[in-house]
Fold this sequence. Notes:
The protein is mostly helical. About 50% of the residues lie in helices and about 10% in strands. The relative contact order is 0.12.
Amino acid sequence: MLNSDRPGTARVAARCPFVTVMLIALALMLTRGNALAQAIDAASYDVLLHSHVENGVVNYAGFQDGVAFKDYVAALAGPAELITHAERVAYNINAYNALAIQGILDGLSPSSLLGRLRYFKLQEWPLDGRAISLYDLEHAVLRPLGEPRIHFAIVCASKSCPFLRSETYTATRLEEQLDAQARAFVNDPSHNRFDKTTRTAHLSEIFKWFDEDFRAGGSVQKYLAQYVSDTDIAKDLAQNGYNVEWIPYNWTLNGTRPRN
Length: 260
């Protein structure tokens, strides 16, 4: 039953300046929330990935054309409204990969020791309301999210990195995308090889550098057993039955160079 004596919102606001201020603040917050949601719109970036990345090979010159990529990177500087864990993972993977591309466009390169220092640690990028390096984005933001498959998704512009997907990561498809990346990377002989005769696993150094991230199931070998397509190898890995050797990392650019 409606109470005819209860004053309406407009009359309360008129009588009480505090209520008026609160209503205005609420409206501003809602407007700001809409702006934040727009800041993580990766649609234009997704189109560029479809157009300029094929089987993981990046046409860097393609990202130089037009303003779409510049606009996406610029939008990353603003604070982002990320509610779910999947949104945080997808947003930060996309941001890492975009900033890694921007670094190449800016003339940086991880191909040398000094180049890697500049590329990963010294260069900072505006992201989510603060400045951050690729190193800190990986180690201080992404790794604490507790998803080891991020190591198969973030791409540092090098041939020994996982391949760059020809699409952005999304919260709704994240599980499917990360699972596909893990299986593709683990079973790619240019990254990992398994010799049944000598029972030797020749592994990417990613599994050495981030050993602790893959040990939740007991060991790196047991982690790999989840994704190796050969069932006999998977069975042996699950028992830590292989010797491990490391494949030297190839820091050569994973595509065609941008125009000077």
